[in-house]
Inverse folding.
């Protein structure tokens, strides 16, 4: 069994294409150029921020994974500081070489360096391997982040309202529309 050399280094702007490919599932939708531009901004921010580090893992000199470390609060209401390991990803061909462990370990080291008592990260709900990996490293669930398109939430919330409320709102909207039409017609007649 051959040994591989795994090292972490700060990300550079020229890593943006690699990072965009690595994090393609975590980036906003768009074409590759937009994603690379977004990642370039994240890299530049991490280079000047005292509260962020973006690390690239290399295996025998080849980029293998990355993680963004960010100092934040546990929640917007719980102001306990935490180091958040954002999107610790490893390319499939470099898994089971200790790269992921090293990425999460770097979050713990950063937290210790800053005197922060907690480390947090996230894994896709459907990623059983990632969730099991995080659990093996002692990271337990704290909350479930749920996301949906705004229009879908509006439609579902509207459908859950009692029919009387929906009817009253619809009637109110129709009344306001009729008043606007009447005012517009009266204004046109005065001209």
């Amino acid at each position: 069994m051959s040994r591989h050399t795994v090292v972490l280094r700060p990300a550079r702007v020229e890593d943006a294409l690699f990072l965009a490919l690595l994090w393609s599932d975590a980036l906003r939708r768009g074409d590759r150029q937009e994603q690379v531009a977004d990642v370039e901004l994240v890299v530049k921010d991490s280079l000047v921020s005292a509260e962020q580090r973006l690390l690239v893992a290399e295996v025998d000199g080849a980029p293998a994974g990355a993680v963004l470390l960010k100092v934040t609060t546990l929640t917007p209401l719980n102001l306990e500081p935490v180091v958040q390991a954002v999107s610790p990803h490893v390319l499939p061909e470099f898994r089971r070489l200790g790269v992921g462990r090293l990425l999460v370990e770097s979050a713990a080291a950063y937290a210790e360096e800053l005197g922060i008592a907690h480390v947090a990260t996230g894994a896709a709900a459907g990623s059983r391997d990632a969730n099991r990996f995080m659990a093996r490293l002692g990271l337990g669930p704290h909350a479930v982040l749920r996301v949906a398109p705004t229009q879908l939430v509006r439609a579902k919330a509207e459908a859950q309202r009692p029919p009387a409320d929906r009817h009253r709102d619809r009637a109110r909207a129709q009344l306001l529309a009729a008043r606007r039409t009447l005012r517009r017609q009266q204004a046109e007649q005065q001209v």
The CA atoms of residues 89 and 109 lie 18 Å apart. The first strand starts at residue 6 and ends at 10. The chain has two domains: 6-136, 150-190.
